[in-house]
Design goal:
mainly alpha; 8 helices; Arc Repressor Mutant, subunit A; Rna Polymerase Sigma Factor, Chain: A
């Protein structure tokens, strides 16, 4: 077990570093529990304050993500109780199931991201460019079809084929790493 930093500045730096490194995963976790990005951001902000207030109970060198997702879970649950206005409201039992499944998914996040990047890099430049334009640049299909001089349905079909190929590639890579 790692010793706690004796200097409060070191402890503050540790907290900020851990929270910053895990922020995208924590936001994704909250989003999976709440369904709306704005709500997830609000809950993560509140959870971050709670984490800071309780950071003295966190043992350095242990699993920060597990500790932080527990706090996010309870903040999301409280948010759900208070936010009866939300069109997407889960009961506590379903929220608990989603929370457990999402924590398991978070453990594989880095591996899946690395596999995805590798699979995208293996695509021909033209196909990779199409995927990036459609999903990263968020170019509308109609506008993209016009730019490429192709029918929108042709692009939808090509994107569907590419999505399936990339998904299969990612699954193969993950299976190869696991086995």
């Amino acid at each position: 077990m790692a010793a706690l930093p004796s200097d409060p500045t070191d402890r503050h730096t540790e907290f900020v570093g851990l929270l910053t490194a895990n922020h995208p995963r924590l936001l994704g976790y909250c989003l999976s529990l709440l369904g709306r990005r704005h709500d997830a951001e609000d809950v993560l902000q509140k959870a971050s304050l709670t984490m800071w207030r309780r950071f003295d109970s966190f043992t350095s060198g242990t699993d920060f993500l597990a500790w932080a997702t527990t706090i996010c879970f309870y903040e999301a649950r409280n948010f759900q109780r208070l936010a009866a206005r939300s069109p997407l409201r889960f009961d506590d039992r379903l929220l608990a199931i989603l929370a457990v499944e999402r924590v398991e998914d978070l453990a594989l996040y880095e591996e899946r991201l690395a596999a995805l990047e590798s699979c995208l890099a293996a695509l021909p430049e033209k196909d990779r460019g199409l995927l990036l334009a459609a999903y990263i640049d968020r170019a509308g299909i109609n506008r993209l079809a016009e730019q490429l001089g192709r029918a929108p349905q042709t692009l939808y079909n090509r994107l569907n084929t590419l999505r399936r190929a990339v998904a299969a590639c990612v699954e193969r890579r993950l299976a190869a790493e696991a086995g």
